[in-house]
Amino acid sequence: MDFIKGKFLISNSALKEKSFAETVLFIIEHNEEGAFGLVVNRPEPENYLDELPSLKNERGITKIYNGGPVRTDVIFVLFMGDENVRQEDGEKIIDGVYMGTSFQLLEKLIEEKAPFHIYHGYAGWAPGQLEKELESKTWVVMPAKKEIIFHEKPEIVWREVLFEKGGIYSYFARNIKDPFLN
Predict the structure, then answer these.
(1) What is the pLDDT of residues 7-66, one digit of tens each?
(2) Rounded Cα–Cα distance for residues 139 and 145 (Å)
(3) Has domain 7-153 been given CATH number 3.40.1740.10?
(4) Phi and psi of 17, rounded to 5°?
(5) Is this structure's pTM higher than 0.85?
(6) What values do phi and psi take at 94, rounded to 5?
(7) What are the E-state strand segments in the chain?
(8) Secondary structure of residue 31 in the 3-state scheme
(9) Rounded to the nearest 10 degrees, what angle do helices 157-165 and 167-175 cross at?
C-alpha cells in the first residue's frame, strides 16, 4: 500500500456517517502507524465562535472549520506559504500548504494577512484502518491542491473535486444527485 500524505480523500456518497458524509479530507500524515487528516469543506456556523471568545474577540477570527470528530478541543492551522516558512512555524504538507498548531503562528498569520484556515478536531485512523476503507471504496483518492483547501465556497468543494477527478466522476458530479450510484 502506498501512503497518501498530501492527497485528498473524497467520501463515497454511500458513506452516511454524519462526520464524513460529502466530505473532502486532506491527509496530513499517513504511515504504518495510521493516518491523520482534516476535513476541508465543513465550516462551522458563524455562531460557533461564540463558544471560543479568545479566538473571536482577541484575534478577530470569523470562521473555523470542523476538521473531524477526534479531539475537537485541539486547533490546527493550514496556511499558504513558500519555501521561506520556518520549521517552527509549520510543517510543509504539499507545495504551498503548511500546517501549524500554535497561537503565535495564528497571530503572525493574522498580522501578515496571510491566507489560512483554522480547524478544530481531526480525522484519524488506526494502523491498517484507512487501507481497509480504501479497499472497500469508501474513499476516492486524488492529489490535493491548495486552491481546493482554501476554496471560497467550501459547500461546493465535494462536487468540485469529483468534477476535477474527471472521467465518470465528472459526469456524475454534474448530472446525478448521487455521483456514486454507478
Answers:
(1) 999 988 667 788 898 899 999 999 999 999 999 999 998 777 666 655 655 556 768 899
(2) 17
(3) yes
(4) -55, 125
(5) yes
(6) -140, 170
(7) 7-11, 24-31, 34-39, 65-66, 70-80, 91-94, 97-100, 116-125, 139-143
(8) strand
(9) 140
